[in-house]
Amino acid sequence: MTNKEFIIQQFKKVKKLGFLKSNRKNNTGIGKTFEDYIGVVENNINEPDLAGYEIKSHRELAQSYITLFTKSPSFPKGANAYLKDKFGTPYEENPDLKKLHTSMFANKANTYAGKYTFQLINDKTEKKILIGVYSIKTKKLLDSSCGYSYADIEKVLSKKLKNLFYVSAETKTENGQEHFNFNQADIYENPSFKKFINLLDKGLIMYDIRIGSYQSGSNYGKPHDHGSDFRILEKNLCKLYSKHEKIE
Question: Does the predicted model carry a pTM greater than 0.70?
């Protein structure tokens, strides 16, 4: 049995179970529930989840951005903490500490805190994707010292995201508890770095920074990194991969 046949078989076993009570109460409940039933051990390592496939789940009617991968910038060391400290905004309840939560694209600038704009810079000469921070008033580039090497992005695409098993679920709520019926899956194989860069340039891939500060406990004041994500709309997944197969 091939890895593909195995994961399809596991999916069909879960599908036959019908509606399943969510194993977690927030938005990540859908992924946690499916992975529990299919046999994935929760982890943060840069390896596929099961049988060489990265597994992602979504609610049937949702058309939203999904996280392709979470990765801290390649350079410099401590890049996220540096960006937070230099360009972040204070917590209202704790103005001595800062946070930086923003989303950006390569084809347009955003607006942040009324002072800055963030925009990804695709430096094809240096083979880097840079996080550009500009003055909202002068449009001058203030900082582009943090970013990703092409090599690091290529590594994620060729290793963790080489095969993607994307599961859809019908949902219902009973007694305040969400339930999922995992009824369809899509298999995506062989992503292309060239396609990734093309989608990035067109503004079809979004980049999120989510970094705060611990406001209590032994880590008080230290960076609390919730992850830096490259994200894509579900409908555009097929534009990243060369092979796509539906599983009913």
Answer: yes
Q: CA-CA distances (angstroms) from residue 180 to 21, 25, 176? A: 7, 12, 13
Q: Is residue 121 within 8 Å of residue 129, measured between CB atoms?
A: yes
> What would the pLDDT profile of 158-200 be if each residue is shown by its tens digit?
999 999 999 999 999 888 889 999 999 999 999 999 999 999 9
Residue 206 in 3-state DSSP? strand
φ/ψ of 185, rounded to 5, equals: -140, 155
- What element of type H or E holds 230? strand 223-233
Residues 6+ apart with CB under 8 A from 200: 106, 120, 122, 129
Q: 195 Cβ partners below 8 Å, 6+ apart? A: 239, 240, 241
